[in-house]
Prior knowledge:
Elements: H1 3-6, H2 10-25, E1 42-44, E2 64-67, E3 94-97, E4 107-111, E5 117-121, E6 130-135, E7 140-151, E8 163-169, E9 176-177, E10 196-202, E11 213-219, E12 229-240, H3 244-260
Amino acid sequence: MSSSFLQLPARARRVLVATAVLLAMLPSGASRADNTVQTLPFSQNWTNTGLINTSDDWSGAPGIIGYRGDGLASGTGVDPQTVVGEGTLVVDVNANQTSPNTFTTGGVSEFEIANPVVALQGSGTARAPYIQVHISTSGMTGIHVSYNVRDVDGSTDNAVQPVALQFRVGASGNFTNVPAGFVADASTGPSLATLVTPVSVTLPATVDNQPLVQIRMITTDAVGSDEWVGIDDISITGSAAVAPCRRRAAAAGRAWRYAADPPTSP
């Protein structure tokens, strides 16, 4: 034991020992997530492969967490638009993968391919995997979400792989499905991985001016062998809200100008 440790007050030594014991009790692969609320505009295109270096560790990807979606669907072929609960929260990402054609562990994966991406694939365990973005819309209105859903699985698998867009205000309760953001089948095949499906949606006004809005892109376990579909080029934007007093002042100014200089008839 070092002399510097022995020189610490007894209380400080007890705290350090207790902390060390607690840390030792944690599993070495303990998952870490980043639910830090992000301000707008927000974007993520995954080109920086250093964001995710360790499986189940999202701490390097600000505002985004991937979940395996255990128990969210009762079987295969469930429409993800109907899956609005949270289920058992299992943080998930298979880091540093390079071959979506051969990697078959369902859930959320980071693929360091020519165009890097984070992708989703359902399975018997990962019944409804998704990625979730945490944003603040305080002082903002007209919240717009866009991203590309990419088929990155060039294997012989040929599943119908739907992807839904959902949101909720706050950190609890069911999600609300966004029908305009639904992709009925984000995959092609077999042996093809070229389809890119753009999604571009303005969310309902209920998400305006909120301290926390959670947005997720979710798929479900398909019938047959699932395919990997990437969620790429994420962009979330909004417009600065105009305060009511400013609107009233602007209207009053327009009325004053009209009274002072009314339009003349031709």
